[in-house]
Design the sequence.
């Protein structure tokens, strides 16, 4: 009977894979990884010997699958495998091959044993062999064998024959106490400051990538080539032919080697600056995966589409929490069937998540999760070796996330030889100093005075009273034919203003956008914005986040200066309208102060009054730094405490992070920071259940709305949230899907209306 590594499944049309074929598939990936991650060997501390150690790990990692009962399982025959771990039966082969090299044996043995499960799970599996008196034995299993007895079922002769194909010979295979080896590492794990830490971490990450991609029979890891940047040369040539050129700060970025901090106004070619910098780094340091980090989903989607268009060949990908929604809408537009759509979405997600894709546009959390020790962290840290990190819109993060980014920057530059570029239009001086201290040696580039003179595009005006007191002025601007943007601080305020203004424009030319829409309705609205003329756009800070819109005039409620600058940036974006008014109302609703500190708004209004007094309200973006530092001279005590606590927490997490260990507490810490729960508006129940019945789970999920955890508790106590169960049939089996549902009113025009509710239909109380 031929040794298998993967079982056949005739129902799904999945062909079996022999053990040799699987090893060869993994070695093919190993060869690709050597080219894609040239710095991994030196960072491991082993030099070129790292690649041979990884090769041995690849060859030996699945030899334990030669166990007779596991082969019976793979051949779909009766078996007594009882959920044992094949990795544990691979260990004696590692010991036989490397018995003369104790240091390498210790590493490869751990890597092979832990390439699927964490060390505590392996310990539970080892306890299986210790007999009936052990609490962790498998129920219903009698006459439990010792590990040594169980290993006798491994076809050693077949493995020896297999290893001969790779010029590896074994004189004798001995079995030693497996629990002693597992207990030994469990009680004395390798941690960050110890020798061999990155050797083990990178071997573990490398083997997991080889195994994962080998199982997928990957034949290519895409690389970023110098030719991928030639569009920049064409772009510059076109500018020169028209009498222009790249900006000086763009040219400076193209000539900078190493870490860089760029300050330049929005719309002055920061993306091109980043790509010029990336080209320079790759010319000097060679291959390394690229991460383009942005704070918001809308920004990431737009940047991915932009980079994918100029680089192409499937070399760009993106990672964020709403990727399913994006891909679902993409394939809906192409009119795919549900099954075909699901398959394509899964394929693309796997590609984007893996090292197959060399450039990823992502949120910082996609990298931060590895420092918290979440599943796959060894692979994630491996992928960051010699990487290039570009952080755009870095001013937009809260203190806790900035603290985490500081730790990430220190770790990536200090241990993984990553190079970093940080870009911003505006940032408080104290924050910039903090970031500079995180990346070590670096260069600072700032757009010159000539650039800033070209970006005088906004005139700020202050109006007394609430924004709702200025509706007549807003209607006047609409009646004059101007495209008007109105930004409120809360969903409730935006809904009220929209209701008062929507009838002053043509049908289909008014739109409300905020965070309390379902994923499906949000996607429709963003599509409307990109495809048609929306004369009136009303919304909340959701509008701030890099939607590619360009309005004639802004009316906004008072907010912190950094938020207002983002709102101003949605007006006269392309600088072809002269100087456009941005009108700020000086009175806030009390509810605004749950979002923004009252003191910061007060300082912002004082700074804006200073601009009005000294420059007649015309905003000189080159002088905004002074105003920002007036508002934010330093952290306030609350934010400083949040920053320092989070910094200490994550630094501690890294120091405790050991290969093969799953850090459950850190995982909880990571997910606790996301203040959002999805629930289904009762009005969307029919659509939700329809999609479940057609097994279109992504569209079903897109019917939900995200709310804050605090609001969830309030509505639960007031009886506005219940638990319900959708029942549907799949593969001739009845399945259930539990979900949270609210009777708060919802419609696709206004979203979730917190002040109004419908009578309950039948639902089970939570």
Sequence:
């Amino acid at each position: 009977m031929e040794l298998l590594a993967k079982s056949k499944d005739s129902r799904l049309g999945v062909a079996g894979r022999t053990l040799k074929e699987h090893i060869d598939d993994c070695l093919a990936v190993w060869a690709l990884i050597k080219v894609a991650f040239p710095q991994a060997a030196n960072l491991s501390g082993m030099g070129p010997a790292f690649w041979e150690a990884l090769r041995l790990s690849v060859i030996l990692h699945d030899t334990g699958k030669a166990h007779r009962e596991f082969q019976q399982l793979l051949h779909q025959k009766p078996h007594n495998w009882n959920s044992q771990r094949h990795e544990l039966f691979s260990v004696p082969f590692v010991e036989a091959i490397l018995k003369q090299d104790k240091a390498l044996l210790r590493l490869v043995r751990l890597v092979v044993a832990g390439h699927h499960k964490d060390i505590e799970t392996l310990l539970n599996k080892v306890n299986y062999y210790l007999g009936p008196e052990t609490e962790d034995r498998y129920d219903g299993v009698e006459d439990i064998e010792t590990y040594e007895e169980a290993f006798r079922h491994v076809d050693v002769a077949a493995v020896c024959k297999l290893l001969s194909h790779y010029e590896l010979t074994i004189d004798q295979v001995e079995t030693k106490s497996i629990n002693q080896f597992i207990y030994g590492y469990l009680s004395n794990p390798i941690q960050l400051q110890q020798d061999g830490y990155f050797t083990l971490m990178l071997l573990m990450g490398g083997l997991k990538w080889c195994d994962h991609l080998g199982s997928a029979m990957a034949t290519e890891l895409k690389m970023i080539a110098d030719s991928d940047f030639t569009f920049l040369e064409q772009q510059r040539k076109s500018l020169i032919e028209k009498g222009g050129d790249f900006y000086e700060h763009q040219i400076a970025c193209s000539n900078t080697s190493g870490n860089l901090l760029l300050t330049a106004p929005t719309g002055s070619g920061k993306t091109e600056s980043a790509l010029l910098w990336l080209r320079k780094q790759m010319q000097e340091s060679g291959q390394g995966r690229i991460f383009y980090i942005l704070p918001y989903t809308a920004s990431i989607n737009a940047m991915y589409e932009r980079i994918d268009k100029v680089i192409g060949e499937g070399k760009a990908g993106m990672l964020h929490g709403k990727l399913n929604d994006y891909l679902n809408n993409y394939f809906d537009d192409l009119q795919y069937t549900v099954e075909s759509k699901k398959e394509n979405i899964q394929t693309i997600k796997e590609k984007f998540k893996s090292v197959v894709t060399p450039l990823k546009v992502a949120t910082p959390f996609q990298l931060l999760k590895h420092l918290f020790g979440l599943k796959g962290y060894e692979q994630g840290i491996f992928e960051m070796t010699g990487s290039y990190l570009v952080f755009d819109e870095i001013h937009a993060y809260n203190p806790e996330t900035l603290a985490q980014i500081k730790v990430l920057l220190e770790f990536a530059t200090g241990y993984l030889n990553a190079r970093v570029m940080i870009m911003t239009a505006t940032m408080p001086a104290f924050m910039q100093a903090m970031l500079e201290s995180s990346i070590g040696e670096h260069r600072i580039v700032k757009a010159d005075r000539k650039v800033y003179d070209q970006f005088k595009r906004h005139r700020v005006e202050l109006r007394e009273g609430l924004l709702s007191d200025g509706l007549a002025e807003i209607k006047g601007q609409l009646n004059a034919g101007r495209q008007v943007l109105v930004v409120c601080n809360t969903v409730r305020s935006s809904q009220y203003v929209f209701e008062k203004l929507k009838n002053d424009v043509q049908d289909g030319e008014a739109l409300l956008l905020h965070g309390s829409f379902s994923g499906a309705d949000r996607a429709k609205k963003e599509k409307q914005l990109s495809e048609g003329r929306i004369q009136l756009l009303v919304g909340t800070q959701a509008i701030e986040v890099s939607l590619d819109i360009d309005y004639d005039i802004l009316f906004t409620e008072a907010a912190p200066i950094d938020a207002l600058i983002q709102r101003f940036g949605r007006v006269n974006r392309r600088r072809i309208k002269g100087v456009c008014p941005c009108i700020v109302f000086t009175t806030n609703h009390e509810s605004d102060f749950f979002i923004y500190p009252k003191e910061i708004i007060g300082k912002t209004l004082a700074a804006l009054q200073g601009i009005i007094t000294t420059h007649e309200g015309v905003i000189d973006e080159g002088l905004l730094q002074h105003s920002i530092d007036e508002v934010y001279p330093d952290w306030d005590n609350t934010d400083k405490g949040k920053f320092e606590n989070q910094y200490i927490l994550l630094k501690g997490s890294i120091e405790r992070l050991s290969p093969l260990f799953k850090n459950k507490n850190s995982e909880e810490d990571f997910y606790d920071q996301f203040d959002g729960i999805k629930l289904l508006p009762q009005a969307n129940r029919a659509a939700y259940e329809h999609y479940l019945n057609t097994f279109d789970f992504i569209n079903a999920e897109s019917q939900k709305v995200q709310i804050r955890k605090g609001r969830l508790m309030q509505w639960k106590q007031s009886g506005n949230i219940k638990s319900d169960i959708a029942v549907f049939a799949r593969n001739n089996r009845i399945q259930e899907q539990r979900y949270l549902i609210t009777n708060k009113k919802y419609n696709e025009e206004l979203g979730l209306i917190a002040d109004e509710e419908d009578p309950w239909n039948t639902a089970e109380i939570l």
